[in-house]
Structures are given as structure tokens and as C-alpha cells.
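Action item from last meeting closed. Structure (180 res):
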């Protein structure tokens, strides 16, 4: 059962983006003459730049967690390879989307009457949807890793012995207010 769920999660961005593209191709929702497409392209460029930045920052956090319980558990189950695969896919698709969006800005200005322009738009829609779905999946998993607490049951017991009286004194002890 878990292998089926893993395959669905792995294929979800591709299946979702192909489905949206087929719907777009049949209904012609997003074409080169869509009003405000230039503004949408600018927003997508900003969006992909932010996603790329977030991914790079989360990679830095994951690297610092190499010795933590969550990473050890992931390495045992080869989950670290899956996270790497998701992250690499998201990073590559966001870079492709960024490049296509920049190219689309020029293509729409020069010759919107040519037939290939609509194919460029359909390709752009595919990468847009794929990138969004892949980014959500990858950032979700990276955030789960980043915010996972260490398993407290594996921590060594403290050798420090505090009596109940000392514990009460420590709780009752007030810190004097600081003077400015």
C-alpha cells in the first residue's frame, strides 16, 4: 500500500500538470492573447525566484541536521535520497520555468501572430503547474524535516539530581529587574 502512495506522490506534479494542460488545450483558457499575460509572467518570475531562494535556504537547514535523529531515520529508509530527488526536481523545474517566462516576455512582444507562440504558452503552462505542484510537495517535506523535534526517548538521562526543595527555590527565585 505504501509503495502505491509513494508512486502517486512522486508522479502527482506530472499527472496534475498534464491534466491541466489538456484542459487548457481543449478550452483555450490561457493563450498568447490573454489580457494581462505580461503581468502574470512578471509575477511568475518573482514567484520562481522566491521558491529557488527558499529551497536553497532549506537545503542549508537540512545540511545542519545531518546528525539529528530525523536525518538518521531518513537515511535508514533511504528517505534522504527521496527528499534529494524531490528537491532537485523542484529546483530544475523552477529554473526552467524562470527561463521560459523570461523568453515568453520577448516572444509575446515580437510576434504573437505566429502559431508557435501558442505552443510556447502551452509549454509555459505545463511548467508553471508542474513547478507549483512540485514546489509545494518539496517545501512541505523540507519543512517537516526542519521543524521535527528530536526524539526525547533517545536522550540520555540527566545525571543532575535536584531535590524538590531546590526545584521549588529555583522556581520561586525572581530575577531582579534591570535598570536602564
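Sequence:
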Amino acid at each position: 500500500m505504501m509503495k502505491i502512495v509513494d508512486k502517486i506522490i512522486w508522479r502527482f506534479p506530472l499527472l496534475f500538470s498534464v491534466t491541466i494542460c489538456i484542459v487548457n488545450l481543449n478550452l483555450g483558457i490561457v493563450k498568447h492573447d490573454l489580457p494581462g499575460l505580461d503581468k502574470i509572467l512578471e509575477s511568475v518570475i518573482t514567484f520562481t525566484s522566491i521558491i529557488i531562494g527558499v529551497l536553497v535556504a532549506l537545503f542549508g537547514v537540512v545540511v545542519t541536521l545531518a546528525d539529528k535523529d530525523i536525518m538518521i531515520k531518513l537515511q535508514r529508509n533511504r528517505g534522504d535520497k527521496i527528499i534529494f530527488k524531490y528537491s532537485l526536481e523542484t529546483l530544475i523545474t523552477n529554473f526552467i520555468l524562470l527561463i521560459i517566462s523570461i523568453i515568453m516576455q520577448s516572444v509575446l512582444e515580437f510576434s504573437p501572430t505566429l502559431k508557435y507562440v501558442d505552443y510556447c504558452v502551452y509549454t509555459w503552462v505545463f511548467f508553471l503547474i508542474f513547478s507549483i505542484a512540485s514546489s509545494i510537495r518539496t517545501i512541505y517535506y523540507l519543512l517537516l524535516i526542519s521543524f521535527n523535534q528530536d526524539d526525547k526517548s533517545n536522550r540520555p538521562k540527566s545525571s543532575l539530581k535536584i531535590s524538590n526543595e531546590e526545584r521549588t527555590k529555583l522556581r520561586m527565585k525572581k530575577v531582579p529587574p534591570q535598570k536602564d
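Note appended to the action item: Residues 2-149 form one domain.
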